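Escalated from tier 1: magnesium ion holo job.
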Amino acid sequence: MTNLLKGVNLYLIGMMGVGKTTVGKLLAQEIGYRFVDTDEIIVKAAGKSINEIFTENGEADFRQLESDVLAQVCAYTKLIVATGGGIVMQQQNWGYLHHGLVVWLDVPIQIILERLAEDNTRPLLQNADPQGKLSLLLEQRQHKYSQADLHITITATETPAEIATRILTTIPSILKKQ
Ligand SMILES: Nc1ncnc2c1ncn2[C@@H]1O[C@H](COP(=O)(O)OP(=O)(O)OP(=O)(O)O)[C@@H](O)[C@H]1O
Ligand SMILES: O=C(O)C1=C[C@@H](O)[C@@H](O)[C@H](O)C1
Ligand SMILES: [Mg+2]
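Tier 2 regenerated the structure:
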């Protein structure tokens, strides 16, 4: 696989909670790439949590930091990059994402809600109607996510390891198409 990819980065996109960070770490181990997470880099650089950035600086600042981080990350090769769920909404970010292969992890909203029920680290879900918010965000984002090179639809019972394996076995077919 590493030979086939020739160092090209993989960018994982999709809604919050679909498993970009979890599956990304496994993919990196599997193919000997480095793992990076744009959310983690932003948190380290800002010295505060994503919730704090949203509250104190606002979402627009977060989106600017996200684009800056993506631009820097793209200078490297042999990376698995877990991105933030909203990275697809800035058109300029696609110029960077398309430096590599873009993989959309697609999980039904009901499963995302169950996974994140006890998790208060996603500022956009800290409201009275997280299900409504997720549905709205997905409606706004779906056509952007669908620009990915690879669309992985994930079922409720599929483990992160199984998803990683499925991605790796499907990649050769999309490389042939390109
Ligand atoms: N296939 C899976 N099956 C069960 N739980 C999972 C699976 N993938 C991820 N999870 C769990 O779902 C939660 C969210 O996963 P993760 O943080 O990897 O999502 P993410 O896509 O990186 O989200 P964000 O965009 O907010 O960073 C975590 O608690 C993780 O352990
Ligand atoms: O879907 C989103 O807009 C977000 C997802 C997370 O990865 C973080 O980037 C942040 O919580 C925003
Ligand atoms: Mg993540």
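The longest helix spans residues 160-177.
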